[in-house]
Amino acid sequence: MIAYASVYGNTENAAEILACRLRDKGICTAMYDVSVSPASDIVAAAFKWSHLVFASTTYNAGIFITMEAVMHDLVAHNIQNRVVAIIENGSWAATSGSLIRSSLAECRDITFIDNMISIKSSVKPEQLSQIEELADSIAMSIRDYAGESGNDATPTDVVDPGTMFKISYGLFVLTVRDGEKDNGCIINTVSQITDNPRRISITVNKANLSCEMLQKTGELNISILTESTPFRIIEQFGFHSGRDTDKFSGHAYDARTVNKVRYLPEYTNAVISAKVDDSYDYGTHVLFVADVTQAFTLSSEPSLTYQYYFDHIKPKPQLPKEHKDGYVCKICGYVYEGASLPDDFICPLCKHGAEDFEKI
Predict the structure, then answer these.
(1) Residues spanned by the domain of 322
(2) pLDDT in tens, 136-155
(3) Within this chain, do residues 136 and 44 fall inside the same structural domain, yes or no?
């Protein structure tokens, strides 16, 4: 959460630059102008977010009036266990930053990010690197907060309706958890079916271990992949089985939502948590209907569609050097050698049927 108090727009500009840098790193941000937003809204948001940024101009050698009121309310409500970064502004002697820090220092378990930024009137070109460093420090702190302490660095009780607009016909990572076992797989069907209650449907291949785990636990996360997703993510979650592979091997993060299920904080623009309400068996696949319990946006990067995957991410199939009869899977590029493809053939990599193969 970023709250700013600005008189001539220069402090607001610094806050917006920081927000852009954070969003570039996949960090979800919420911004509040303390001169416009009610203090109660800002206080409520401060209790939802793990990391807080306060940017304030200096006014009469003190904190700007509306920001000072927010500080008073936060202390009065005993805000605690938060990570705080500060940007101060002042044409001659900026004091707002140190005063904000001393106010919040009265509260328990407040951790301050040390590299406070001090602006004189406006952001100078040489200070852009300082803002970038602050964004790096915040991003690193969020990863540590979510990974090492097992906390969730996202809103814990918010369902953002804008998250639903990230859904496309494309590729998603479904993640599930059963006891201490984390697993996930690639799926291509996620749809919102009702708005009140907010409900989605997903379809999962019955051959996937994730399908079995979801039928047992009923808890799931959907990570909506972005166009920057590398092919290795598709391989890791789509071409291997969780029965003999740790799908999260090599990932340093352990990001989880309120339901304790993991999600992908990278190459993802939004995350949806849901609880299964009903399911339907359709032969090769199970259709799950689930109520959304948490949803949040991580970035504004476009969602990964099937067309983009085929055009820019999926490697071109490596055909035999000498001419041979065969068929190639249009989904993953697997090549089947033979004059004819059995009608019941299933791709050993992506589990798609003969209808998704074309003759070489």
Answers:
(1) 315-359
(2) 899 888 876 655 444 444 44
(3) yes
- The CA distances from residue 257 to 12, 31, 153, 264, 309, in Å, are 31, 22, 9, 10, 27
Are the CB atoms for 170 and 309 separated by under 8 Å? yes
Check if the beta carbon of residue 172 is closer than 8 Å to that of residue 225: yes
**Tally of domains within the chain:** 3
| Closest by Cα among 58, 56, 38, 57 to 46 | 38
Does the model's pTM come out above 0.90?
no
Q: Note whether 15 and 32 are same-domain residues.
A: yes
Alpha-carbon separation of residue 286 from 61, 208, 242, 280, 327 (angstroms): 64, 10, 18, 6, 28
How many CB atoms within 10 Å of residue 272?
29
Q: What is the 3-state secondary structure (H, E, C) of 103-131?
A: HHCCCCCEEECCCCEEEECECCHHHHHHH
Looking from the CA of 297 toward its CB, the CA atoms found within 13 Å total 18
pLDDT tens digit sequence for 198-243: 999 999 999 899 999 999 999 999 999 999 999 999 999 998 889 9
For residues 323 and 302, membership in a common domain is answered with: no
Counting every residue written for the chain, the total comes to 360
Whether residues 66 and 141 share a domain: the answer is yes
217 Cβ contact list (under 8 Å, min separation 6): 176, 177, 178
